[in-house]
Predict the structure.
Amino acid sequence: MKARVHVMLKTGVLDPQGEAVRHALGQLGFDGVEAVRQGKVIELDLAETDRAKAEQAVTEMCEKLLANTVIESYSVELD
Amino acid sequence: MHAAVIVFPGSNCDRDLKVAFERAGARVSMVWHKDTEMPSGVDVIGVPGGFSFGDYLRCGAIAANSPICRSVIRHAEAGGYVLGVCNGFQVLTETGLLPGVLLRNAGLKYVCKALDLTVETADSAYTSGYAPGSTITVPIAHHDGNYFADAPTLDRLNAEDRVAFRYVQNPNGSQQDIAGILSENRRVLGMMPHPERMAEPAHGGTDGAALFRSLVDQLAHA
């Protein structure tokens, strides 16, 4: 089973990289981009075939390593 | 006084930290990240600067989950001393031994220069050799030193006098100019500036030496 984890900075945490991207888009003439937030996508290939167990395992991976929940939120998608 | 300095793949200030501890009078053991136990009788653990595991995922995140870090956490939880400098500070926040995180510098650039710091508290084994409120010059060299914590955490750090150092001129966007913080029991210090790089005259200054001297002296007489 494949899992895709999205990790984003939480609302309220300044994202200087996203801000730099927004600025660069403006310089290229893309008007009207009001905010940019940059995050990460992590793809996992899992041996697990049970959906519920896979989701539980990936959630635990996020809590322990993949995200720093002080500043980041995460979401998990399973294929 | 026995100090251990952890070596991760990508550490690059480990030997500087060793020399700084030795010049202050400590015996130093270098400890590889795959080891699971500290040498016996270790009083203080140094977590050095560098780019452990290439800063993959997040700075310090992989190192914080390495076998030796479980031993670092046990040492701290038993009341032992831990000093984390630069990447070491990032590792300590990732282990949860210190609150908050170090984000990408607000200016997005790697900053490498000597800066003035205010010593905010002399109430720790690390800072007792400085006059509170005094200014010292210590270099920084980092890309991710922008200290972030939520408002209740910042309030608590201030109320408990746990901010050890602040930047006189904020180089990285850190909240409240924070350059270094102490744990609740004041025995774990994390700081982005490098005291070990300003510890003997050949470095161009010696303002960092007092940190190692006071720590070694206090632990030697403990």
In short: The longest strand of chain B covers residues 111-119. Chain B touches chain A at residues 57-58, 61, 65, 93-94, 99-101, 103-108, 146, 148-150, 173 (CB under 8 Å).
